[in-house]
Design brief:
135 residues; alpha/beta; GMP Synthetase, Chain A, domain 3; 5 helices; 4 strands; 40% helix; structural constituent of ribosome
């Protein structure tokens, strides 16, 4: 019988990259994972909350399918870089949206000595991403 393998783990390093880039001491590793989970949940909740607000108004049809394909987190000693890969970034292009998201993340992460840097990247071929097609 064949062995079952995680498809992401099988493709890491060949066709796909890791979603988190950071190192930690073994005793601090679980804290780093929990911090990553908080960041990802905060971003997803922000997108869903603002998408619901936008659905009440007339908006472009692309913004209704605003889906995050994946979130990359890169941690350095004094900086956390968050790269959001999104199909249609209309919601986050609005004035003050990224600043509001940064404030929410600063509250959630509660890091005093680390700066937070958020970047938005549009997916080149959004309709080839399964997350976008599922919406």
């Amino acid at each position: 019988m064949g062995q079952k393998i995680n498809p992401l783990g099988f493709r890491l390093g060949t066709t796909q990259n890791h979603h988190s880039f950071w190192f930690a001491q073994p005793k601090n590793y679980s804290e780093g994972l929990q911090e990553d989970k908080k960041i990802r949940n905060c971003i997803k909740n922000y997108i869903q909350k603002n998408r619901k607000k936008g659905s009440n108004r007339k908006m472009e049809s692309d913004s209704s399918s605003e889906v995050i394909t994946h979130i990359e987190i890169q941690k350095e000693i004094d900086t956390i870089h968050v790269i959001i890969h999104i199909g249609f970034p209309n919601l986050l292009k609005k004035k003050g949206a990224i600043e509001e998201l940064e404030k929410d993340l600063q509250k959630e992460v509660n890091s005093v000595n680390q700066r937070l840097n958020i970047a938005i990247e549009k997916v080149k071929e959004p309709y080839r991403q399964p997350n976008i097609l599922a919406e």
